[in-house]
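User: I'm new to structure prediction. If I give you an amino acid sequence, what do you actually give back? Let's try with this one:
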Amino acid sequence: MRRVAVLLGALALLAGCSEGESDPEPEPLPPPVQRGAEYEKRVIRGWLLALNRDDYDGAADFFAVGAIIDQGDPFRLPSRAAARLFNAGLPCRADLTEVEDEPGPKSLASFRLRAGPGGPCSGIVKVRFTIRRGKFTEWRQLPEEPEPPGPVV
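Assistant: Good question. You get back a string of structure tokens that encode the predicted 3D arrangement of the chain. For your 153 residues, that looks like this:
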């Protein structure tokens, strides 16, 4: 019995129980973590790693069901199986060279193309991603920019 009384007394002291005192105001929570270019880079790199391993199921996991794919003729991925087929059909592999943060959940990624299942590939391609909860809801490849005329200096 004495042990219980001592324990209850210690708990009362630790809890700061005393008449007339109110609990201090809780500290405000820190602002939510901003999902910027670093977060988007991690998601895009994860997708590229899956593609480089020929892991088309893993690559498909980065696409939301109903994601918009646009390579000049937009369509939606109606299922995970469609996302798998899209990824398996990409003829090139690519290295991520830059990610520019854009307003909202959008980012513009630049890739240097290299040989893939479709054979030799080269050049730079840009894709505008909309990423929500770690999944691509929009994947829009921008038209290639024409080479500037004249000699390269």
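You can read the tokens as a compact description of the fold. Here is one thing that stands out. Strands lie at 63-70, 75-76, 93-101, 106-114, 124-132, 135-141.
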